[in-house]
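re the bet — no i am not wrong, look at it urself. input seq straight from the record:
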Amino acid sequence: MKKVILSPKITIFPMPSAVITVGTWDEANIITLAYVGKVCLNPPIIAISIQPKRHSYNIIEAHSEFVINYPSTQQLKETDYCGTRSGRDVNKWKELNLTKEKASIIKVPMIKEFPLNMECRVIKKIKLGSHVCYFGEVLATHCSSGYISDDTVNPANMDIFTYFSGNYIPLQKKVIGRHGFTID
């Protein structure tokens, strides 16, 4: 098959549809980000990138904590809404009837309705062109019991989606292979 050279700015792989909360209880804001990824296992560190022009930027700068909230496909509307409205103009918690849930370690609230929440504390940040990348150590992970089998997350039970080239795409609810399956 012939390959075509594309702009390096085009993302050619699926990215998370993560809904990030920043700020303490009363000032807490919600922003949807696709620039999210695990970068270290031990300690567990996840990187998120935010443009300085975003409302959430000043809030994360002030508190150095954030929660990664992963929605189910039932929360697609909320995910898109939080990524297309600014907290400067609208209270997303109120408009979407989302509930602030107290985190177990940090002061940033989790989104109660979302099935997966990861409490993170910023350990480093790097300015990278259009975005600032925050490296957050994962201090606690919360998961809906319906996603768990045999004391671990079962991907076949999950009802989540990804972001790819401006589109939301559901992930299949089946496992097609497990890491290490090629080892004899």
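see?? The chain has one domain: 15-170. told u. also The first strand starts at residue 15 and ends at 16. so pay up
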